[in-house]
Amino acid sequence: MFHQTALKSVTLVILLLGLGAYVQTGGYYGRELVIEACILAMLALSVDVVAGYGGMISMCHGALLGAAAYAFAAMTALLGWPPSLSFVIAIVASTLLATAIGAVSSRTQGIFFIMATLAFGQMVYVMIFDAPMLGGDDGMAGVKRLNLDLVGINFKKSAPFAFACIALLALSYGLAALMLRSGFGRTLSGVKANEDRLRALGVRVWWVKARAFGFSGLLAGIAGVMAAQHTQFVSPELLLWTLSGEALVVVILGGLGTLVGPLVGAIALVFVKHEISSVTHYWHLFIGIALILTVLAGGRGLYGQFEYVVTRARRRRAKDHA
Amino acid sequence: MLDVRHLNKRFGSLAVTQDVNLSVARGERRLILGPNGAGKTTLFNLLVGELASDSGEIHLDGERVDRLGVDARARLGLARSYQKNNLFDALSVAENLALAVTAARGLSSNPWRDTHRDASVQEDVERVAAQVGLEARLHHTVSDTAYGERRQLEVGMALASGPKLLMMDEPTSGVGPAMIDGFRQLLQSLPTDLTILIVEHDMDFALDLADRITVLNYGEVVFEGTPSEARESALVREIYLGADDA
Fold it and tell me: What ipTM does this complex have?
């Protein structure tokens, strides 16, 4: 069950401030890394809500991100709609799509749930891939960014855009924390632990799962809309199941069911990937080894392990005092 | 309150519930007796919807419920405790009870209200914990509590959901005499308009509490009457209490 502990709050603040400082000091390349890390962190956060707290391992979150990105791209580049309106509609679309996927997939469990979400994700991929209007294999260029000139922010520059990504990451975390602390969020954790008992208590388990999936789709949608604006280009690669897999890797690397862990995992993955790939092409190998070590060390992930060590030390200290 | 008509259930060629008719009045304490394999737990599973009946009808407060799912029947006021503990072992006693209270108050779908800090939810949690004697164990993880305390929590979970009909499947199984006394006091302290259906093997405990008794054998109702009629019934003594007592 979710608890926003002091350790989580401190870690979150340090991460966000660290990203902000890197935007200021890291130059253009540094800002690009921060944007990439924030988008991946938002996606991983959305996966952690359903996988870490609801026990639903999803393989369609890449498609949810991609669907929001394409929706935003189509509205701004094809229809010429204002980016602010497109922003809202794209996120609502990914939320509704995720709720529908969740409503159907929640009738299954375990490996079948994973397969159902994978199938839905592939359906979205194929539909977009086969749509000539959306550019098919070539993707779609000309995606506009939000226009914040009225408030004196030039969103076309990388620094304001990177700060917006950090702010949206903080907002996504806040929304997820609020939801997980609510009656609904606690019920979701109960679903993960013992869904039959919750059903016997009168809870519509499938609807709880569907809504949680929908909420998760909202967070993935925010990540998708920012991804589309980042490169101002969308391609079917955004919808690939491998992106869902990468998000899952990030969650496990950072700490499944910790909420702050996915942020740690995403930042670690993006920065390590770029550092190692400048030396060797085999950066996947290092991530793979890190993932195996994480699982062998108890599966708590980087943040989870840190939290475990701190909590154990605190208990030992309290015992010594007593 | 509860009206069961011609209920049947088969597992392959084995008839586990055969033409069961049961009528339980509001506020009644009904004891379901029967030897092992008589179909008592199966009957409970059919009533709450964990098993689908082959035929027959179940009515709760005049409403037909046998086509409803487990959650829908629970929302109509049907709550049960399990023969084998069925709890949230990694959560604390308070968190377990809070899940039941949250569901009963319709807060399971509220995405904003923090039920952990909600005074009214916590009040209900503490009230139920005191009712089942777990007020001192609220913040202990279930997996760290004793077996008997988990039995108490089983009943607490069912009570916390605010039932109209409380079904208890062997609440005292595996607990000591002191705790059995505690359960007796608990059941005697419950509101008189709460209908209770109880499967129990401790005869002294059960006969003291029951208003009426239904005896099942091979899935069939073979006796229905008051506790004193049951004590005097040769048939009941033969099939339940054993030939030596007959």
Answer: 0.89
Task: Render each residue's pLDDT in chain A as its tens digit; 322 residues.
Answer: 899 999 999 999 999 999 999 999 999 999 999 999 999 999 999 999 999 999 999 999 999 999 999 999 999 999 999 999 999 999 999 999 999 999 999 999 899 999 999 999 999 999 999 999 999 999 999 999 998 888 888 888 999 999 999 999 999 999 999 999 999 999 999 999 999 999 999 999 999 999 999 999 999 999 999 999 999 999 999 999 999 999 999 999 999 999 999 999 999 999 999 888 888 888 888 888 988 998 888 889 999 999 999 999 998 998 888 7
Alpha helices (H) in B23-176, listed in sequence order? 40-48, 70-75, 93-104, 119-131, 147-160
Chain A: nearest CA to B230, how far in angstroms?
32
Q: Does B120 touch chain A (CB under 8 A)?
A: no
Measured between CA atoms, how close is A38 to chain B, in angstroms?
A: 25
CA angle, residues A203, B146, A299, in degrees to nearest 5: 65
Nearest-CB residue to A1 (from B48, B95, B113): B95
Question: Alpha-carbon torsion A94, A97, A100, A103, what sign?
Answer: negative
Reading the block at residue A285, the tokens are: 């190998």
Output the pTM of the full model.
Answer: 0.91
Are B115 and A199 in contact (CB < 8 Å)? no
What's the gap in Å between the CA of B107 and the closest CA on chain A? 5
